[in-house]
Amino acid sequence: MAEAAPTLVVRGGSVVEGGTSTRADVVIEDGVVVAVGEGLDVPAGATVLDAGGCLVSSGLVDLHTHLRQPGHEEAETIESGTRAAALGGFSAVMAMPNTDPPIDSAAVAEEVLALGRGCPCEVLVAGAITLGRRGEELAPLRELAALGVRLFTDDGSGVQNGALLRRALEYARGLGVTLAEHCEDAELAAGGAMHDGEWSSRLGLPGIPAAAEEAMLARDLALVRQTGSPMHFLHVSTRGSVALLKAARAEGLPVTAEVTPHHLALTHAAVCGYDPAFKVNPPLRTMEDTEALARALADGTIDAIATDHAPHPPEAKDLPFDEAPPGMLGLETALSVSVQALRGVLGAEEVITRLTTAPAAIARVSIAERPAATAQGGPLVVGAAGHLCVFDPEAAWTVDSIAQASRSRNTPFAGTTLQGRVRHTVHAGIPVVLDAVAQR
């Protein structure tokens, strides 16, 4: 960002920490928190943000964002994507490598990092596991790791060659980085457009069975067991996957996992109108799967919520359901949808933890990995980075796909009224969203 703003006071809210909240004001100077407490004095000349009735947390961290640049700027740019992220309360996003060219070299990673500088949230980079994401030979993991890349994935497809993935895990362990898998057996999923079940039969659409995800997840867990290398599992979507992860955690395997807001909030029944806005990969599953995912998030089997923000321009989505590309927008609605979907399972403060502390640790940008003044997702204490999300749990708003910051419009929540909205977002001490309006 540009030079730091004047002293900033976020007043009247409740600060979230460890799944609970306590009434407190927050004062930020030169991009760093300098005071936290109730009824703090307002320094002369300070900017005051009203947080009355709101939950105040560190900025949200998204583990799974498709920013599309380079190569698909018609769908999204790093600038438009980070503006959408800020509106959703995010202070950091992890850019996925399925760009054109892919992020499989230091040169492309450096380009993305450079484009992210000066944006309204921090842009982190995930590198590809294999060259071109083709699953044939390893990308230069060491070269990318030297730039600070700590997460590697061929997201959009899983590494189908088990022997190659085993080598990648052994190499990653030596580098101290983490591989992240999109678990999908390509042969089992081939030709599918939605979940293979009751609704695919009714609609006459080819299905993707839960077994496509679960078979690869089981294989990958066996490889983690063999190599001892950690692995993160992207957008887990089935109750069978939850059972596999629960057993792996009980065994002590070094694994983490994420779930998306849309897999918590929607089921395959949403496809009933053949609207491609509801086409996503992995597909929307059954109510039983959705309920299992929510319980797994509550009991710690699944660590984090991640958006899998996947923009597509209108002309790409304006095709028959089975021909349209999979993917949904998610950044601006993630917190609201998650809080609403998990009501009765997790409180809003606990949901925020799954969008801050947990993903920051997986992305390796938490206070355990960085100096406090530059860390993401940590507690709002003196010395912490001045990244804040101010969330009003009582605010009702209707999602307008045209008004969103993304260059694309493919939100499944268009026209839906949600309860709970991000009121303000602060990045490095600078308000980038005020009263739900982007400031740049």
Please describe what this structure looks like.
It contains 14 helices and 21 strands. With 440 residues, the chain is an alpha/beta fold. The chain folds into two domains: 106 residues, Urease, subunit C, domain 1; 314 residues, Metal-dependent hydrolases (TIM Barrel), CATH 3.20.20. The strands form five sheets. Strands 3-2-7-18-19-20-21 form a seven-stranded mixed beta sheet, covered by helices on one side. Strands 11-12-15-16-17 form a five-stranded parallel beta sheet, with helices on both faces. A four-stranded mixed beta sheet has the order 5-4-1-6, with no helix packed on it. Strand 4 and strand 5 form a beta hairpin. It is globular. The model has no long low-confidence stretch (mean pLDDT 97).
